[in-house]
Amino acid sequence: MLPWYVERLRGVRKFLLDHPEFSDRQRLRGAIAIPTADPEELRLATTALKEGRPLPPPPRATAPPAKHPISMLRFARHPGVIEFVERSAGGVCECCKNPAPFRREDGSPYLEVHHVNMLAAGGYDDIKNAVALCPNCHRAFHHASDATRVQMLRRLRSNVPRLG
Ligand SMILES: [Zn+2]
Ligand SMILES: [Zn+2]
User: Fold this and answer.
1) Ligand 2 center from residue 85 Cα (angstroms)
2) Cα 142 to averaged position of ligand 2 atoms, centre (Å)
3) 150: which of 25, 46, 61, 117 is 20 to 30 A away, CA to CA?
4) Which range is least confidently modeled, 12-21, 60-69, 137-146?
């Protein structure tokens, strides 16, 4: 019986089809060792490795990694939204209220503009949907557990009245 994430690992699925002679366990161990340029696949393979007891020996690189072309779509962003949101924040993260961790070359405090309803989910590039965050809070909004993100969103909404 293979774990849930195998279905979502394209490299693993291909490996399983290519190597029917190995046991499920052997095939899984082999498959999660395949380098991938797909960030989601990489994350899932890392998740698979977390379940390994003991931790398998790390792979040793004998050449620079292969390169894969990617194609991606970028959203057109309005500079006026970024400037408004950054200036409203006044150099302080609108979520945790800590000061920006450093300044840019031009002296401006480094914060990142995040869309509460994410653009990829159909959100608007509008000041009512955008906040200035420190890099830690920004990463957390994209990668933390649901429970943490719900808490942070509550904090954000009480800190930033323009979100409505
Ligand atoms: Zn923060
Ligand atoms: Zn974001």
Assistant:
1) 13
2) 6
3) 46
4) 12-21
Q: How far apart are CA 32 and CA 46, in angstroms?
A: 8
Residue 95 CA: which ligand is closest? 1
pLDDT at 49 over 80: no
Separation of CA 94 and ligand 1 centre (Å): 7
23 pLDDT more than 90? no
Cα-to-centroid distance, 124 and ligand 2 (Å): 13
CA dihedral (65, 67, 73, 77) positive or negative: positive
* Ligand 1: centre distance to CA 46 (Å): 27
Which ligand lies nearest the alpha carbon of 131?
A: 2
Ligand nearest to the CA of 135: 1
Give the domain ranges of the chain.
Answer: 4-50, 79-163
Q: What is the CATH number of domain 79-163?
A: 1.10.30
Both tokens of residue 57?
């020996």
Q: Report the C-alpha gap between 127 and 144 in whole angstroms.
A: 24
The dihedrals phi and psi of 107, each to the nearest 5 degrees, come to 90, -10
Predicted TM-score (pTM) of the model is 0.76
Q: Number of helices and strands (H, E) in the chain? A: 6, 2
